[in-house]
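Run log // design_07
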């Protein structure tokens, strides 16, 4: 399942990306740690299970996960943190007849806001390839009950609305972003349009009503996740893989509330490729004496001494999203993929998975000095299929959630 970027030439990478765009309909056979098999148990019906799982820590400190079970049903579970995991029974949510994407960069997501608000989002694939709607379930009682699913965006064309990202800002406004292809020229047109676009909307009542669909930027990459982080004022910032001139697929950064196409280029790998790497960036707030900025992680291929050097990199961005060149470095693992990053003051956590043969290892790179130096740790291992690791945070507490075919691993980040 885990393709290794270290050994990929451009042709091999394109083949891997073609494979990854094929929808997977097998579901997860795993169980949660410390519980008997629930809706997530049983044998997968196909070779590639859909293990992509969202995670968030609720205001009361419980960790919640959302994903698909073996019957392709959306379920939620939660557990208190701070001791042995005590998972609640997996609860299946009513999503009608919606098919749900839960593979790789496209995963169900959960977010908690004020006033008991909780929302779950997912991409519902449509009949045409690479098309979908962003769907949402809403709760006003902290996730104890959820209403029926609804489509978040106003546009109802059978086109790409995929790879959603959701978050509440510090004022309690819910922001939903997604990759959208409504601006593609019609078939037969001589007009050129590279990639897709980033669209967004917002809700001030916890997902009960939404404002208009608003374009954030043209020419995003088509199939990579969007990274979100708050600034010191609690306003959301976003980063994504972007198609720059000459088909260079680096990354862009902007405030979610910015006018369209007011972007900053946040990476400079100069990776020229006419395909989507299915490998989006991560973003976290960076505290510094001279002013704030951001931590970012991403995958790219850049020329080093005339040779392609693929790898996952880490860097500091300034407050406007400009990279600080002296901070750019490769993660200490040539097989690293699908990294995530979070921070709390001077504490920074970067996590990723690393595959060799049939074994995948979950690793963490931890800093106590704002990303100046790091310590490498191994957190877990698994054989067979597994999800990308995801960090979740509540104040100073950080955990990494990693779903495999056997279990959902949860590891406290200890600095």
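design_07 sequence
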């Amino acid at each position: 399942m885990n393709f290794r970027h270290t050994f990929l030439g451009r042709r091999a990478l394109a083949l891997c990306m073609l494979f990854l765009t094929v929808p997977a309909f097998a579901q997860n056979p795993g169980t949660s740690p410390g519980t008997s098999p629930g809706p997530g148990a049983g044998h997968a019906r196909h070779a590639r299970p859909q293990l992509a799982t969202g995670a968030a820590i609720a205001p009361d400190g419980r960790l919640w996960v959302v994903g698909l079970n073996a019957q392709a049903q959306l379920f939620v579970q939660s557990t208190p943190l701070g001791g042995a995991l005590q998972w609640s029974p997996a609860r299946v949510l009513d999503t009608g007849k919606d098919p749900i994407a839960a593979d790789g960069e496209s995963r169900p997501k959960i977010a908690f806001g004020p006033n008991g608000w909780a929302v779950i989002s997912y991409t519902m694939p449509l009949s045409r390839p690479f098309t979908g709607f962003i769907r949402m379930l809403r709760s006003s009682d902290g996730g104890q009950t959820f209403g029926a699913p609804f489509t978040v965006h106003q546009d109802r064309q059978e086109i790409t609305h995929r790879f959603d990202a959701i978050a509440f800002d510090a004022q309690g406004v819910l922001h939903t972003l997604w990759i959208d292809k409504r601006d593609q020229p019609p078939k037969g047109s001589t007009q050129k349009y590279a990639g897709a676009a980033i669209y967004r909307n917002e809700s001030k009542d916890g997902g009960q009503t939404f404002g208009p669909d608003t374009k954030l930027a043209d020419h995003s990459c088509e199939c990579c996740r969007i990274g979100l982080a708050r600034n010191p004022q609690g306003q959301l910032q976003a980063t994504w893989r972007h198609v720059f001139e000459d088909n260079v697929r680096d990354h862009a950064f902007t405030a979610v509330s910015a006018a369209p196409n007011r972007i900053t280029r946040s990476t400079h790998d100069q990776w020229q490729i006419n395909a989507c790497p299915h490998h989006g960036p991560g973003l976290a707030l960076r505290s510094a004496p001279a002013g704030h900025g951001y931590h970012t992680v991403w995958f790219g291929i850049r020329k080093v001494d005339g040779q392609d050097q693929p790898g996952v990199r880490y860097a500091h961005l300034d407050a406007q999203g400009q990279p600080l060149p002296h901070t750019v470095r490769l993660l200490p693992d040539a097989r690293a993929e699908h990294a995530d990053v979070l921070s709390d003051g001077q504490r920074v956590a970067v996590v990723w998975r690393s595959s060799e043969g049939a074994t995948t290892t979950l690793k963490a790179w931890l800093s106590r000095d704002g990303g100046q130096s790091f310590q490498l740790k191994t957190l877990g291992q698994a054989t067979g299929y597994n999800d990308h690791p995801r960090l979740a945070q509540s104040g100073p507490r950080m955990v990494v959630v990693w779903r495999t075919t056997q279990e959902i691993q949860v590891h406290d980040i200890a600095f």
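Residues 1-46 have pLDDT under 50 and may be disordered.
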